[in-house]
Amino acid sequence: KAGVTQTPRYLIKTRGQQVTLSCSPISGHRSVSWYQQTPGQGLQFLFEYFSETQRNKGNFPGRFSGRQFSNSRSEMNVSTLELGDSALYLCASSLKGMGEAFFGQGTRLTVV
Amino acid sequence: AQRVTQPEKLLSVFKGAPVELKCNYSYSGSPELFWYVQYSRQRLQLLLRHISRESIKGFTADLNKGETSFHLKKPFAQEEDSAMYYCALSGQETSGSRLTFGEGTQLTVNP
Q: Which of A91, A102, A103, B8 has a CB 3.0–4.6 Å from the CB of B44, allowing a cystine?
């Protein structure tokens, strides 16, 4: 079966802009989680969506938001980009939000 | 609050030597512990989880609640084991999948 797909793979944005990242989970998976990975902070949980509802949220400012559609695809939006938002953003899906999480390849965001 | 600590950022061993990647956690409830691995230019993937009690690719990990540890072990390391290893925790009290990761250990197995 197809794995978790994230688009785009690479993005370059300027400070102050906004960006939307997309994640298509494995077919049948209803939970989608987002993580930010940076060399300094490692992997940090952003939020989780399950059946179109945000179920968990990490400690990130309100500039980071997301949503999930009825087909379980998810988008993550970052507004008013800052240089510190440069990171690899990973999406993970799981069947019910418990147990094994399957990760995508990530979207590399560079803010200049 | 939940926290995962991997004290070694880098670990280098020779092929055939035993390897142990350390992981300690802090969590007040009943955690579920995982080891994830990322090989070069590949996506992060699950290696094993404590409730499965499996041995995957020769690796095992035992949850020690007394010492709050979940160390990953392999008796004879292989060159293909070279990768980044992350220990992760999921708390049962937080519904859904919210993984707290350690900072990772880069394992290099030398020929």
A: A103
Rounded distance between C-alpha atoms, residue B107 and residue B12, angstroms = 6
Segment B2-24 shows an average pLDDT of 96
CA dihedral A102, A38, A22, B4 (to 10 degrees): 40
- Asked if the Cβ–Cβ distance from A101 to B99 is below 8 Å, we say yes
C-alpha dist (Å) from residue B36 to A96, A101, B74, B84:
19, 10, 15, 8
B98 and A48 within 8 Å at the Cβ level: the answer is: yes
Can you tell me the distance from the alpha carbon of B53 to that of B49, in angstroms, rounded to the nearest whole number?
Answer: 7
Query: Which of B44, B45, B85, B90 to probe by mutation at the A interface, max A CB count within 10 Å?
Result: B44
Report residue A84: phi and psi, to 5°: -70, -5
Would an 8 Å CB–CB cutoff place B43 in contact with chain A? yes
Q: With an 8 Å Cβ cutoff, are B96 and A56 in contact?
A: yes
- Sort out which chain A residues have CB atoms less than 8 A from B43's CB and list them: 3-4, 103-106
pLDDT tens, position by position, A44-100:
999 999 999 998 899 999 999 999 999 999 999 999 999 999 999 999 998 876 668
